[in-house]
Design goal:
The complex is a heterodimer of chains A (359) and B (313). Chain A has seven helices and 14 strands. By secondary structure, chain A is α/β, with parallel strands linked by helices. Chain A has two domains: 216 residues, Zn peptidases (Aminopeptidase), CATH 3.40.630.10; 75 residues, N-terminal domain of TfIIb (Single Sheet). In chain A, the strands form three sheets. A nine-stranded mixed β-sheet of chain A has the order 3-2-4-7-5-6-8-13-12. Chain A has a three-stranded antiparallel β-sheet with strand order 9-10-11, with no helix packed on it. The longest helix of chain A is centred in the last third of the chain and has 31 residues. Chain B has 313 residues and is α/β, with parallel strands linked by helices. Chain B folds into two domains: 223 residues, Aminopeptidase, CATH 3.40.630; 70 residues, N-terminal domain of TfIIb. A nine-stranded mixed β-sheet of chain B has the order 3-2-4-7-5-6-8-13-12. Chain B has a three-stranded antiparallel β-sheet with strand order 9-10-11, with no helix packed on it. The longest helix of chain B has 22 residues. Chain B starts with 6 loop residues before the first strand and ends with a strand. Classes of the chains: A alpha/beta (359), B alpha/beta (313). Chain B: Its main location: cytoplasm. Chain B: Keywords: Cytoplasm, Hydrolase, Metal-binding, Nucleus, Zinc. Chain B: Belongs to the AspA/AstE family. Aspartoacylase subfamily. Chain B: Pfam families: AstE_AspA_cat, AstE_AspA_hybrid.
């Protein structure tokens, strides 16, 4: 595996999305600042910056009617739209038109979606594949470049049509999830980390597109196994215990059979009853109480990644001349940017009219 | 026999309430109060009727701070005396109901003590909130609590201020006490935060029990932080925030902020410094709910309050 070099198409068109959850503020602020600064075009890469859920951002809520980041399955994207359709479903279809269509050759090469979590997870890339070499090489690059914060890769093993999040719209995609940060709050250190993560990611893409080869190797990946819910009252469904103090904030510390997991309100310790030691993450994520998740559990394994480089000009006989290709790409990019920017302006007016921004 | 010290006599604290869910997403109070509504044994004390109460059930159900308007700002004279009706915002209607049950505010029938349980995203530890510097009963209680939880600290925030004081749900009582514990994200229940709040309340109720049994509490002093000035985030002409709490200030509630110290950091990394006249002690640093109230933090000044001796009449 490591000896063979894999040649892949360039990652020329990148989408950077924030505010998919309107109260996860690092992404909101990062996207807002990029839009304000109208970041210059650069060689080797074109980046579209998108505020995914402007209405939720305006209200500083996760979502207004339904979680936008669960609306990108093929079923939801192709469903009919009426005036009763929840806002987020309408929006997911708009985003699919803008950045996709999902599964088609027109889709963005890379969709990177910015999130925060109340869990102590450091920086995680979250993706549906453990063999997407682009994503895994970006992961390894971030790990090497960012020494201040743990960088990890979480893999949710779902086929593309069942993949439900925004990042699944691109040919390659992942979420960048950074915690801990309370929802509705901007912590400067967390924002700096996200800015650095995005910068390093774009730098890797530039290097890759300009022909830099990246050597293969091994990376550690956490594959999601199962979720664990809170103990609940039989009638009211209210939770009857909190995450145990010995588990709180210990994301990615191995959880062994009989380790404490919950502490009931009467002080009793509830232990992990599984037989396999697993790695917990999303421990006490605020948004997951309503989804019935107190924590998630993953297996860790080492994954081999091949050396990779981008296709050179004329490498594939059928391709257009690079000038024609660039011209076509510029055209498409221009159209999309305009469309995206226009849509942003609609919502931008909505949000600026409120003094104080959030309701 | 003449005593050389003046002892203020209060009648016993017979009716005590514990409010949770004044903000529906501040989970420690919601959880504790629901627990005690099911089984109130833990909060029972001799000679006291202790009533746990969810003040904003609709907000609790939606796990949101409020539905129409902030309940903890709704207990103004204007709201409480307005003619009742379904067209009023939900929280104003609720304030009127609460005033009827636990008040009327300012009258002899009002509850003796109300504890109002809150969480904050700020690193405030276990903060007690005092509304009046002349409330000797509360000062004595806070002195007792601080001693009981030492060496852990329990800062006291005094909100007595002509402009910054706000009309809280607990203000319906003769002796209102706010309990603000953080840091905890909204909508999240952390067991250490939950337990801290529980312990502080236990000591508070112990004090009430001792007082009701006739124990005299000698004169004491209480170090407090008196609220001084509200500091907003730097904003552009459209009202958008253009800087964040500086990493040097983040999580440093109750620590001195000196003139020249970093205060905010713009998104391109420029430091904005504090330019006040003297040292202040900031708190409520980066509280999520205060972005919309134009508050990044509030400055306070240290003060020592004297409480006279108190005894049950």
């Amino acid at each position: 595996m490591e000896g063979r070099e894999v040649v892949l198409p360039t990652v020329s068109r990148v989408a950077l999305c924030g505010g998919t959850h309107g109260n996860e503020l690092s992404g909101v602020y990062l996207v807002r600042e990029r839009l304000k600064r109208k970041v210059e075009e650069e060689e080797h890469i074109s980046v579209v910056t998108v505020m995914s859920n402007p209405r939720a951002v305006q209200q500083c809520r996760r979502y207004t009617e339904t979680d936008l980041n669960r609306c990108f399955t093929h079923a939801t994207l192709s469903g009919p739209v009426t005036d009763k359709t929840p806002y987020e479903i309408v929006r997911s279809q708009e985003l699919n038109t803008l950045l996709g269509p999902k599964g088609s050759p027109e889709a963005m090469d890379l969709v990177c979606d910015l999130h925060n979590t109340t869990a102590n997870m450091g920086l995680c890339l979250i993706a549906y594949s453990d063999c997407d070499w682009i994503s895994l090489h970006i992961y390894r690059y971030l790990q090497r470049q960012m020494s201040d914060i743990p960088v990890r890769f979480i893999h949710f093993d779902l086929p593309l049509n069942e993949a439900y999040s925004l990042d699944s719209v691109g040919k390659h995609g992942f979420a960048i999830e950074i915690g801990p940060q309370a929802h509705g709050v901007v912590r400067s250190n967390i924002l700096s980390t996200m800015q650095e993560g995005v910068q390093q990611m774009l730098e890797w893409v530039r290097l890759f597109n300009s022909g830099t080869p990246f050597e293969g190797g091994k990376v550690d990946v956490y594959t999601m196994v199962k979720n664990v819910d809170y103990p609940r009252d039989f009638e009211t469904r209210g939770i009857t215990a909190a995450i145990h103090p010995q588990l709180q904030d210990r994301d990615f510390c191995l959880l062994r059979p009989n380790d404490p997991v919950f502490q009931t309100f009467s002080g009793e310790t509830l232990k992990y009853t599984g037989t396999e030691p697993l790695y917990p993450f999303f421990i006490n994520e605020c948004a997951y109480y309503e989804k019935g998740i107190a924590l998630s559990l993953a297996r860790q394994r080492s994954v081999g990644i091949p050396s990779i480089r981008s296709e050179r000009e004329g490498e594939q006989g059928k391709r257009k001349s690079s000038a024609e290709e660039m011209e076509e790409e510029e055209e498409i990019k221009g159209e999309m940017e305009e469309e995206g920017y226009q849509k942003l302006m609609e919502y931008g007016e909505e949000s600026d009219s409120l003094n104080g921004q959030y309701k | 026999m003449t005593s050389s010290t003046n002892v203020s006599c209060f009648h016993g604290a017979r009716r005590v309430a514990i409010f949770g869910g004044t903000h529906g997403n501040e989970m420690s109070g919601v959880t504790l109060v629901n627990l005690w509504i099911q089984n109130g044994k833990e909060i029972q004390r001799k000679g006291v009727e202790t009533k746990p109460f969810i003040t904003n059930p609709r907000a609790v159900e939606k796990c949101t701070r409020y539905v129409d308007t902030d309940l903890n700002r709704a207990f103004t004279t204007e709201n409480l005396s307005a003619p009742s009706g379904d067209d009023l915002p939900y929280e104003v209607q609720r304030a009127q109901q609460i005033n009827e049950i636990f008040g009327p505010k300012g009258s002899p029938e009002a509850y003796d003590v109300i504890f109002d349980l809150h969480n904050t995203t700020s690193n405030m530890g276990c903060t007690l909130i005092l509304e009046s510097s002349k409330d000797h009963f509360n000062l004595q209680m806070m002195h007792y609590i601080k001693k009981a939880i030492a060496p852990d600290s329990c800062p006291v925030l005094l909100t007595e201020h002509p402009l910054l004081k706000y009309s809280t749900s607990r203000s319906v009582a003769k002796h209102p006490i706010g309990l603000e514990v953080g840091p905890q994200p909204q909508g999240v229940l952390r067991s250490n935060i939950f337990e801290s709040m529980r312990v502080v309340l236990k000591h508070a109720l112990d004090f009430i029990e001792l007082f009701n049994e006739g124990l005299e509490f000698p004169p004491c002093t209480v170090d407090v932080f008196r609220v001084s000035e509200k500091m907003d985030y730097p904003r552009d002409t459209n009202g958008n925030i253009i800087a964040m709490v500086h990493p040097n200030l983040q999580d440093c509630d109750w620590e001195p902020l000196n003139p020249g110290d970093p205060m905010f950091q713009t998104f391109d990394g420029t430091t904005i410094r504090y330019e006040g006249a003297g040292t202040v002690y900031p708190t409520f640093i980066n509280e999520a709910a205060y972005y919309e109230k134009q508050q990044a933090f509030v400055t306070t000044r240290r003060e020592t309050l004297a409480a006279g001796a108190i005894k049950k009449a």
